[in-house]
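USER: Write out one fold?

ASSISTANT:
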Amino acid sequence: QAFESEETNPFGGIQHAFDTLFLLPNDLSILFEDTDGTRSSYNHRKHAVSISMAFLWEQHDLLTRHYGDEQGNAHFGNFAVYWLIQELGHALIHELQLPYTGQIEDAAAEFAMLMLLSHPQGRDQALGALAWFEALSAEQTDVSDLKFWSTAALDQQRFHDLLTYMHAADPQANAWVAEIIPESRLRRAAREYPRK
């Protein structure tokens, strides 16, 4: 109900995919709420993911500011689906008690990237996520000022991680990544991606 119509709802087209691809141990609610100050959250007791509409519209403004209205709107639709998948990944880690290292947000982000890149129809959403990370990077005037564990620094890291995963998943279609990422890192990603 957060979107005016089915045409403006970027999630409408993926419901069937989730209904057929995932079998959760509990019913999972996805709530789109008018909350400020947070991107999203997961309530383990209620089995509910809460996604901030204020955050989503801020990212819409970021993408259209960076890419222009037409391209920014297209990127936003794909980014919004990526964000939903990331938060579902967050929930899956909890619900299925999947092991992970580091911060759960990092694990959920990587989980979402891997789910998209391993699915035949996930490339557009992966590119939407990549566009978002790139726009966030452009907002940073001096990367050297970032604190290692800051959200902005992690977004920079995920931008480069997603590039390496994209190249490892399909080196021919994503040959352009080699112009951005050093060859040694691409070779490492080619070894790691199948295991991940």
Q: What stands out?
A: Residues 1-7 have pLDDT under 50 and may be disordered.
